[in-house]
Specification:
Helices cover 20% and strands 35% of the residues. The chain is α/β, with parallel strands linked by helices. The chain starts with 8 loop residues before the first strand and ends with a strand.
Length: 130
């Protein structure tokens, strides 16, 4: 039994449609499937690269709830890039599309640039030095 990678990521958000729009503005158009269940609404997005992100609005989530990386659960989303130039290209893309982000960071093990989605969840584009 082997795990070959992460198949998909599903996030709880306050507004599934607004979050889906933001992720597609960031990552480009995706194949979208909408689902509704008992107490929730989900937008599932799949990009041509195979990356799948779902955003779910739960009826029980408080209207003023916000993401906090210091709480138990998700800290951030890390999306892999193949080179430092790709990380810098994502920063330029976010500049062009009006998505706020931090600086391109050089760390001992690679390069990263991070934006925050509408709920404050950090989305990092990262390239390892190895």
């Amino acid at each position: 039994m082997n795990v070959t990678g992460i198949h998909h990521l599903t996030l709880t958000v306050l507004d599934a449609e607004a979050s889906a729009e933001w992720y597609q503005r960031l990552l480009g158009p995706a194949e979208v499937i909408r689902r509704v269940g008992d107490g929730w609404t989900r937008v599932r997005m799949q990009w041509p690269t195979g990356v799948v992100i779902g955003v779910t609005r739960h009826d029980g989530t408080g209207a003023v709830d916000r993401f906090g990386h210091e709480r138990v659960g998700l800290d951030h989303i890390g999306l892999g890039c193949s080179s430092e130039d790709d990380v810098r290209a994502w920063a330029e893309h976010m500049d062009r599309t009006g998505i706020a982000h931090g600086p391109v960071e050089t760390v001992p093990y690679g390069w990263a640039v991070t934006a925050r989605d509408p709920d404050g969840i950090p989305v990092e584009f990262f390239c390892s030095r190895t």
